[in-house]
Amino acid sequence: MEWSEVLENPLLKNLPFKIELNKFGKLLMSPASNDHGRVQSRLAAMLLNKLPSGEVITECSIQTSDGVKVADVAWLSEVFVSEFGFVTPYPKAPEICIEIVSPSNSKIEIQDKVDLYLAKGAQEVWVAYALDEIHVYTCMGVIDQSNFLKE
Length: 151
Description:
Elements: H1 3-8, E1 17-21, E2 27-31, H2 34-50, E3 55-64, E4 67-76, H3 78-84, E5 96-100, H4 107-119, E6 124-130, E7 133-138, E8 141-143
Parallel strand pairs: 5-6
Antiparallel strand pairs: 1-2, 3-4, 4-5, 6-7, 7-8
């Protein structure tokens, strides 16, 4: 399957799942929870507040070497938006990609997404286990605090 087919398929429109594609075009679905949605909305609101010069997208689709992955939250600079607009999926990862860990996620799956987003150009990948437990990854490894949020 191609991402455009996923978007156009009426059977997939209202599923309570996050949908992604692997590199073979097979659908991957993860169940959504209300707590996941709460963390997602809080992180999006925080980014909008602290980084108002860019755009925030929830469920941001990114073409990776392992198919289309969907970051739970992403922050895009004005430069990124001027280059790519709101094309779906993005051919490059936005500056910040955030994954919110669900009980169904394995450590390997999350680390694979971190690696895929960084390989596609993300400057930081945040892995949120809860609102008060967020690990920030760069191509140099884990850092204590986001470089985008330093005062």
